[in-house]
From TrEMBL:
It holds the Pfam family Aminotran_5. GO terms for biological process: glycine biosynthetic process, by transamination of glyoxylate. Belongs to the class-V pyridoxal-phosphate-dependent aminotransferase family. This is Alanine--glyoxylate aminotransferase family protein. The modification N6-(pyridoxal phosphate)lysine is found at residue 172. Residues 58-285 form the Aminotransferase class V domain. SUPFAM superfamilies: PLP-dependent transferases (SSF53383). It comes from Paenibacillus faecis. One of its GO terms (molecular function) is alanine-glyoxylate transaminase activity.
Length: 357
């Protein structure tokens, strides 16, 4: 009997093979510079983030949650729902948090874990992750990071940084699908889940249900629930990233951000984030105050109004993924120039200069 699937022409009808699954986990380990196979999450990145919160939260556990934007705020609510005692370090959304603030908060509250968002596309800010993790390690805390909007836009060496939980998705910098994502978990992280009687089991929110076999043993079957088409699209996206080179993908995002900043400054418009050392490389946020022309209600190309409470305060330039390029940034800045009725040409020159053209 032939093992050949009948619907050869329709890739969607052929289940994900073990070798495709192993390719995918291998690509993700490489992307994150970790020796531990990340868990594939059968859904959008937000599912992996909610699963991390559900898995670590428990009555009797005090968790320090950093809020520098809406995703951090949501994470805190999920921790509370799980019965954890949540202590928050919250800063205005046009700032990021400092490692010193985190160190002081840890000393004061003595939590067992720390959670934060590495970079925020919504606010255009990027937290100093390496320093924050260093501060947390001094107190031996379990660390949890939402890196959905950082992966591919800045460094994320998971093992070198010793971070225990990292959620990633491909729909931002990696120009991949949004229907499947991943969570990287250290051995310490697994222990933290297993020692939690309140961690979900037999649930779509359960990370423990997805735990790979003991280290070293190859899986004998593909874990259930992984969306086949999305997994294949992720394999392709990660292959493209490897082909371009992760370093180069990051450099392209850095250039996109630097050129967007140069472009808005040449227009006489200010960035919304306060400190230029902590700009996200995926989005540039633009101050609306004093520029009534920038009060748009709908996105125009990659120029988008602020989300939620940030609507009317900032505009976002979404220069990530395939849009982390000179052409997209130039088009966005021409859009802004039109909105404020100013000559775009000095900005276009400034953008070209950043791209070395
Ligand atoms: C985009 C993003 C996510 C995923 O959220 P979706 O809105 O579901 O794409 C999670 N965290 C952060 C920081 C993000 O930027």
């Amino acid at each position: 009997m032939s093992q050949e699937p009948k619907n050869r022409g329709f890739a969607g009808f052929v289940p994900l093979s073990l070798s495709e699954f192993e390719t995918l986990t291998g690509q993700l380990s490489k992307l994150l510079s970790t020796q531990y196979a990340p868990v594939i999450i059968p859904g959008e990145a937000i599912l992996g983030i909610e699963a991390m919160a559900a898995g670590i939260a428990s009555p009797g556990r005090k968790i320090l949650n950093v809020v520098t934007g809406p995703y951090g705020s949501l994470f805190g609510k999920w921790l509370e729902r799980g019965g954890a005692e949540v202590v928050q370090v919250e800063v205005p959304f046009d700032e990021v948090v400092t490692a010193d603030e985190i160190g002081r908060a840890i000393e004061r509250h003595k939590p067992c874990a720390l959670s934060f968002v590495q970079a925020e596309v919504v606010t255009g800010g990027s937290n100093p992750a390496e320093d924050i993790l260093k501060a947390a390690r001094e107190f031996n805390l379990i660390t949890v990071m939402d890196s959905v909007s950082a992966v591919g836009g800045e460094a994320l060496p998971v093992d070198a940084w010793g971070v225990d939980f990292v959620a990633v998705g491909a729909q931002k910098a990696l120009a991949g699908p949004n229907g499947v994502s991943a969570v990287s978990i250290s051995p310490r992280g697994w222990d933290f889940l297993e020692s939690n009687a309140h961690a979900p089991r037999n649930s779509i929110l359960s990370l423990l249900d997805l735990k790979p076999n003991e280290q070293g043993t190859a899986p004998v079957r593909v874990p259930p629930n992984i969306p086949t088409l999305e997994a294949r699209a992720l394999i392709s996206a990660l292959a493209r990233v490897e082909e371009e080179g992760l370093e180069q993908v990051i450099r392209r995002h850095e250039r996109a951000a630097a050129s967007a900043i140069a472009g808005i400054q040449a227009l006489g418009i200010a960035p919304w984030q306060k400190d230029s050392r902590y700009y996200s490389t995926l989005t540039t946020t633009v101050q609306i105050a004093g520029e009534p022309g920038l009060r748009i209600g709908q996105p125009i190309g990659i120029v988008a109004p602020g989300d939620g409470e940030l609507f009317g305060q900032l505009l976002r330039i979404n220069h990530f993924g395939a849009n982390a390029c000179r052409e997209s940034v130039e088009e966005a800045i021409r859009t802004l120039a039109g909105l404020v009725n100013r000559d775009p040409e000095p900005s276009v020159e400034a953008i070209k200069k950043v791209w070395g053209e």
